[in-house]
Write a structure and sequence with these properties.
It is a single chain. The protein is an all-alpha fold. It is about 65% helix and about 0% strand. It is built from four helices and no strands. The longest helix has 26 residues.
């Protein structure tokens, strides 16, 4: 899915906020124009993780009532 988004010029700016692309920026040595910095990539990855953990907690709380 990411490859499809990254291939389109109009969607490339949105694709960089997906977790796999943001996580890759943590180990990036050279930065290209328009890329996230390693700190921003880590922050985006942290937000994705927090969102998934929150959704899982809500789902478990509703199911186990």
């Amino acid at each position: 899915m990411t490859c499809i988004l990254a291939a389109s010029d109009r969607l490339r700016s949105s694709a960089r906020f997906l977790p796999d692309r943001a996580g890759l920026r943590l180990m990036q040595i050279h930065q290209e124009a328009g890329d996230l910095t390693p700190l921003a990539g880590g922050a985006v990855l942290l937000l994705w993780t927090a969102g998934v953990v929150t959704l899982a907690a809500v789902s478990f709380a509703r199911r186990d009532v």
